[in-house]
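Response to reviewer comment R2.3. The reviewers asked that we include at least one raw input/output pair. We reproduce the pair for Glutaredoxin here without editing.
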Amino acid sequence: MSEETVADIEIYTQPGCPFCVRALQILASKNVAFREIDAPHGTPERAEAIRRSGGSRTVPQIFVGDRSLGGCTELMQLDASGALDRLLGRA
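Raw output as returned:
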């Protein structure tokens, strides 16, 4: 993670999740600071991710501030379109 903070980025993950690993790689490639929150099934952290996302039960769940970006697929789409850089203040 970088010391440079562009936005308050949080990502809820669980061990062994390949989608979580990919999303973490994308965020790391942007050289922005983010907070990874371990959120396995049945934990208060997972319940918080579900609440914040509006009911999505999958991981990862990615947030910039209070805005839900969705999961890995949505993050990949934002990155491919250039919208992720704009959202992070990079473009």
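DSSP finds four helices and four strands in the chain. The first helix runs from residue 18 to 29. Further pairs are available on request from the corresponding author.
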